[in-house]
Amino acid sequence: MISNYKFLSKIGEGTYGVVYKANAPDRLVGGAQFVAIKKVRMDENQEGVPVTTLREVGVLRLLCQHENIVRLLQIIPDSPNLWLVFDFMDYDLKQYMNAHYPHGMPDEQIKACVQQILKGVAFCHSHLVLHRDLKPQNVLIDKRNGQVKLADFGLARAFQASQKVFTNEVVTLWYRAPEILLGQKEYTAAVDMWSIGCIFAELVTHEPLFPGKSEIDQLFKIFRCLGTPSPYDWPSVNTLPNYLPNFPRWTATDLKSVLPRMHDNAVRLLARMLALWPDHRLKAQAALQDEYFDSMREQSPGRNCCEGEPPSASTPTDLITVSASTECQGSEQGDSDHQTVGRSKLRKLAQNSASTGM
């Protein structure tokens, strides 16, 4: 019951609800002193909950045993509200940088942070899930031990073998991959890798790498830095809906000149994360093997970031594209986050979480 928790303060608010910091009895959450509780805002006009909530619950039930993914501890249907109980983390990455490193993080801390983000994302991708909204605000940090966890899976999607067109209204603008900005409707795990690259650079400078004011401004900021793509270096880019043949022609800038604080091996890794052509963009598991992380492996081998059942050999993550929504009771309406699903489905999930100890 939600009454078992002692609410302490409101720590966030968004489109779909309010997040509180709370105390909880040890028996409910395995000894955690604090938890974060999201109160889901129900649709007043429909008998249901936002589809983003169902998505987040479903994805976290699949992934939340990984050390770099926030745990969903409990689901509490308490009409007219729905409450989701999560690990409490002290900061998101943006808050952490503002509080402790206003001029950029030290190199070794950047390395540890990026490595943990990649581990979490590699685990998602190994289970055929895209996050689709990676940004500093969705990366959480425990100040006690520096542990990083990915959060906010409301836009996450499971890869599916049957392919349909997918919306391009994903990922906060500054971290949005160029293929999405250019209107590509079928895309891969490369969109998450682009976002990680943008976060990587921001950890160094404490400034967003591509702070666009609009989609076209975002594209032009990317092109000024990385060069305007052509069919010679990005096959079929000229067939994408938002590509214009009269785009200004910029040549690529040396990333080292943009990020002079970065060590050479870090710049090389970043460049592979920010490849304009998605097929040339580094994958998360490959990035973890990069020489940039050699010192981290020497300090501690760590755990395999892709523990658990691997994806089917017939559906490798580098070949499959994301599919349209099939979660809204068979809806063919695409990826609208304003759709709702029946509360009975969430009630079932809550019962399952109680019986399995989630």
TrEMBL record:
Task: Name the GO cellular-component terms.
Answer: cyclin-dependent protein kinase holoenzyme complex; cytoplasm; nucleus
What GO molecular function terms would the record report?
ATP binding; cyclin binding; cyclin-dependent protein serine/threonine kinase activity
Q: One Pfam family this chain carries?
A: Pkinase
Give the catalytic activity.
L-seryl-[protein] + ATP = O-phospho-L-seryl-[protein] + ADP + H(+); L-threonyl-[protein] + ATP = O-phospho-L-threonyl-[protein] + ADP + H(+)
Return the EC number.
2.7.11.22
Main enzyme class: transferase
> Which residues bind ATP per the record?
39
Q: Point to the regions of Polar residues compositional bias.
A: 312-333
Q: Where is this region: Disordered?
A: 298-358
Signal sequence interval, chain numbering: none
- Spell out the CDD domains in the cross-references: STKc_CDK_like (cd07829)
Q: Which InterPro entries match?
A: CDK, Kinase-like_dom_sf, Prot_kinase_dom, Protein_kinase_ATP_BS, Ser/Thr_kinase_AS
Q: Which UniProt keywords apply?
A: ATP-binding, Kinase, Nucleotide-binding, Serine/threonine-protein kinase, Transferase
Which branch of life, at top level? Eukaryota
Q: Which PANTHER family match?
A: CELL DIVISION PROTEIN KINASE (PTHR24056), CYCLIN-DEPENDENT KINASE 2 (PTHR24056:SF254)
Record-stated family: Belongs to the protein kinase superfamily. CMGC Ser/Thr protein kinase family. CDC2/CDKX subfamily.
Q: What is this protein called?
A: cyclin-dependent kinase
The lineage is: Eukaryota, Haptista, Haptophyta, Prymnesiophyceae, Prymnesiales
